[in-house]
Amino acid sequence: MFEQLGLIGCGLMGGSFALALKQAGLVKRVVGYSKSPTTTERARQLGIIDVEAPSALLAVSGADLVLIAVPVAASEATFKSIKHLVNANMLIMDVGSTKRDVVDAARSALGPRSGSFVPAHPITGKEVSGAEHACADLYAGKQVILTPTESTLTVQLGKAVALWTALGCSVRQMSPDAHDAAFAAVSHLPHLLAFALIGSISSQEQARDFLSLAGPGFRDFTRIAASDPVMWRDIMMANRQELLAQTALFKNTLASLESMISSGNSEALEGVLQLASKARGRWHMTAQKTAK
Amino acid sequence: MFEQLGLIGCGLMGGSFALALKQAGLVKRVVGYSKSPTTTERARQLGIIDVEAPSALLAVSGADLVLIAVPVAASEATFKSIKHLVNANMLIMDVGSTKRDVVDAARSALGPRSGSFVPAHPITGKEVSGAEHACADLYAGKQVILTPTESTLTVQLGKAVALWTALGCSVRQMSPDAHDAAFAAVSHLPHLLAFALIGSISSQEQARDFLSLAGPGFRDFTRIAASDPVMWRDIMMANRQELLAQTALFKNTLASLESMISSGNSEALEGVLQLASKARGRWHMTAQKTAK
Lengths: 292, 292
Fold this sequence. Notes:
The structure is a homodimer of 292-residue chains.
Chain A: E1 2-8, H1 12-23, E2 27-33, H2 37-45, E3 51-52, H3 56-60, E4 65-68, H4 75-82, E5 91-94, H5 100-110, E6 117-118, E7 120-122, E8 143-146, H6 154-166, E9 170-173, H7 176-202, H8 207-212, H9 216-222, H10 229-238, H11 240-262, H12 266-282, H13 286-290
């Protein structure tokens, strides 16, 4: 049970975290700050936060739990702005989709105080953003990846594991680099491909006709292309090395499929499609199996 | 109202068509044939067909409506096997995802009798196949594209439009070539990309770890990669020219995104992501708006 959550960023992810904590009875008071005062105000009106703070530093004042739910590119500035109030009794987490850059930002901004920071990536989201879409069950039944480093305080790591578990999440730990390599493959690259497909179709003269014919397969495939462009710009830039490596591997596979198609090699094409279809058929979201 | 449906192919698409017609009271009797006798038998046990036919020709005997729901690569052989019973009072349709190859197959196999054939592509499906997944509402509220040619009989085209409309579909007409170009962009390429992504991830040593971390975005993006590999091999081969043209355009867009990422050009990257996100946000499935 926490006394006070300092919430920095009252949008979809941060707002849902506050609501989930409140619903689970894990926090007494939520003090929130967003860069945009209208977001902070809306979050209070929606009952997401109890008190509006005029700065990130003041949101952290008196908090024993801090969640930083800002775009990953704003992590370092956020750590800097709160560093004077960070102490060893405080659990600080983020919810960013990349971890190496956030870990580096924490170390650089907080120095030895970065031990209070437990980097976290809950695997959830919506293609819409903002406090008005926050909901208490965004995290339940989902996976949360924690990427502690050698300097992370064990006591805070333990609190983080207990907290997410209490919210109904299945918690895993790995290194920031292993995290970023995996998510380049299963998240950042799919987003890049979905954005690229929409971009490619939109740039064609017949775009409107084409899109009017698209069905449920297209709808699901491109759902992630409606995601927040600024957030995804930051993620792609932050994890560019791993993302470009995965893109190169993907292009090799695509090129070999193209060559089977253009040369009429049905048998080879079927072989690759069979393997992919089986692999996808076998796959199930981990947290779906372990939770609920 | 039709007297007798001759159903060639009693799988998901064909079986659902028979169930939908029965539910709407549009057909008195369904005679079915599948290449595999066990499929035909299961379709009868499931109430999809009333009578099992031992051949495609015998399924057509006495029918005033014929649906060919076989893989597109089997179209020509199917047309040939039934041509002696095809007449001008019969409406013949298919449900294939490509149209130029099916139109050519009908003309080549049926000659002047191909006027009874109204090429049809209902934009629906599931990532599972087989009679046991057939359901009466697979077509309701969906788009159906008809691609008549100059030799299509007006009377049969009129019956086709009325039939699909009665099943709750929104019906559009276009040329086979326009159809194939559009579906290369909004269906065949997305499938190719989804298969390629799964193939690329699966070929990596850490595939199992990576996949265990994938979340809802990955789930939706790759859902179509679980589709029937043989069917998709045939579609990709049948529409290879348009598919490879769309793949080339896609690769250009992807390459320009990669170059923005590798050169750190955040502004340009954000511009492309903004446009794509807006385009995807504006898009809605046409039939969803017009039906129900």
